[in-house]
């Protein structure tokens, strides 16, 4: 996928002078449907590079960039990139409806990031309200869109979104996704280093949720196979679980992961768009409504299709260490899910 975005960018740029029609309608011999993507929080640390990466994606025909401030500048800047999509900036609540109308995919990186010493749950008080109001608008203006939730704490913001949509009568569990792709991106990078494998060929499923021990990478299922010691697996697991904190500490008060998150968010949105467009066998890990455990939401491999989630895949065989990790994460994940549900229903 990484390579395919870059290849697409190159091919779009090289076609742009020769055929406007090709730019807006088709790439190669296949025709590509019109797709609108909205980014909410588009002027932020994640939002800006994510806007750029979505502008590079030839599957997007319209890119709506919404934030409470700063989006006209971001849109003017990104809009000069000579790729397929038309970019429009929307600023302030009055323009939120227009930003959302007709969207196929809505990506939400709106809200405050962590500072050193904070957990993701410490963001709940501010971000829960932001997510609730944005999801209320999604229910009104683009109830059929696929929602990619990036705002933390994902373990709670996804259940909040679900409750808001239920209240509005628009909930479709196939269309709501917590973006956990960054955990997969990290697990792949760290594993490739230890396994001495080409990172582009590495696959590692990551299950559970998106905070601390709720992030459970399944290195026993990693490919290519490598004969890593138990000690190495424990260290890789811990590094993946603490990946966000590693960045928060390195940034020393200037926020959390933005660039790697934008990359991960762009990968996941691309997978959603491919699924919508009928590309077969698109599988990514995501935090979705799930029956693979007793918890109502859970991250695991998900097959994406024309309506969003086509199927939630099972967990496969777990090592004893992973089975233990799975049991340990459940109480924390359950509490975070319930906290989100309660918040959404209290007002
Ligand atoms: N899911 C993940 O893996 C993952 C990874 C990294 C960060 N995050 C989370 O993403 C969120 C954003 O992080 P960031 O570094 O981009 O933060 P940031 O502060 O740089 O940007 C957030 C943006 O949200 C905007 N915003 C605030 N309220 C809004 C509202 N009501 N409507 C629209 N926009 C609004 C702000 O104006 C700002 O531009 C944080 O909650 C962070 O914890 C999640
Ligand atoms: O760690 C954070 O607070 C941001 C994000 O969830 C991450 O995993 O990088």
Automatic annotation (TrEMBL):
The positions annotated for binding NAD(+) are: 41-47, 67, 127, 150-152, 261
Q: Name one GO cellular component term.
A: mitochondrial matrix
Q: According to its UniProt record, what is one Pfam family this protein matches?
A: Ldh_1_N
Q: What positions does UniProt annotate as the active site of this protein?
A: 210 (proton acceptor)
Please list the residue ranges annotated as the Lactate/malate dehydrogenase C-terminal domain: 180-343
- Enumerate the spans annotated as Lactate/malate dehydrogenase N-terminal domain: 36-178
- What is the reaction catalyzed? (S)-malate + NAD(+) = oxaloacetate + NADH + H(+)
Domain of life, source organism: Eukaryota
What broad class describes the main subcellular location of this protein?
A: mitochondrion
The record's keywords, sorted A to Z, are:
Mitochondrion, NAD, Oxidoreductase, Transit peptide, Tricarboxylic acid cycle
Quaternary state and partners of this protein?
Answer: Homodimer.
For this chain, the family text in UniProt reads: Belongs to the LDH/MDH superfamily. MDH type 1 family.
**What is the protein name for this chain?**
Malate dehydrogenase
């Amino acid at each position: 996928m990484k390579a395919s975005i870059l290849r697409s960018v190159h091919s779009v740029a090289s076609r742009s002078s020769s055929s406007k029609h090709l730019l807006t309608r088709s790439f190669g011999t296949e025709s590509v449907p019109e797709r609108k993507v909205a980014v909410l929080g588009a002027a932020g640390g994640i939002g800006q590079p994510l806007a750029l990466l979505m502008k590079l994606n030839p599957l997007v025909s319209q890119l709506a960039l919404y934030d409470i401030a700063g989006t006209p500048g971001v849109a003017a800047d990104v809009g000069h990139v000579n790729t397929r999509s038309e970019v429009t900036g929307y600023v302030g609540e009055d323009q939120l409806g227009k930003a959302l109308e007709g969207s196929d995919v809505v990506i939400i990186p709106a809200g405050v990031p962590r500072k050193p010493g904070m957990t993701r749950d410490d963001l709940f008080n501010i971000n829960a309200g932001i997510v609730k109001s944005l999801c209320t608008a999604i229910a009104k203006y683009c109830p059929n869109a696929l929602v990619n939730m990036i705002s933390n704490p994902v373990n709670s913001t996804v259940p909040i979104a679900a409750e808001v949509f239920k209240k509005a009568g628009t909930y479709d569990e196939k269309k709501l996704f917590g973006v956990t792709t960054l955990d997969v991106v990290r697990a792949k990078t760290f594993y490739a280093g230890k396994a001495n494998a080409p990172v582009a060929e590495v696959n590692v499923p990551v299950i559970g949720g998106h905070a601390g021990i709720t992030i459970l990478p399944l290195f026993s299922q990693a490919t290519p196979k490598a004969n890593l010691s138990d000690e190495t697996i424990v260290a890789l697991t811990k590094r993946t679980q603490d990946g966000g904190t590693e960045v928060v500490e390195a940034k020393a008060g200037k926020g959390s992961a933005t660039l790697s998150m934008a990359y991960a968010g762009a990968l996941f949105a691309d997978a959603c768009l491919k699924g919508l467009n009928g590309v077969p066998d698109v599988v990514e890990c995501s935090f979705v409504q799930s029956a693979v455990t007793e918890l109502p939401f859970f991250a695991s491999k998900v097959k994406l299709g024309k309506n969003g989630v086509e199927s939630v895949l099972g967990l496969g065989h777990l090592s004893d260490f992973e089975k233990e990790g799975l049991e340990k994460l459940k109480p924390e994940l359950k509490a975070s899910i319930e906290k989100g549900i309660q918040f959404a229903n209290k007002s």
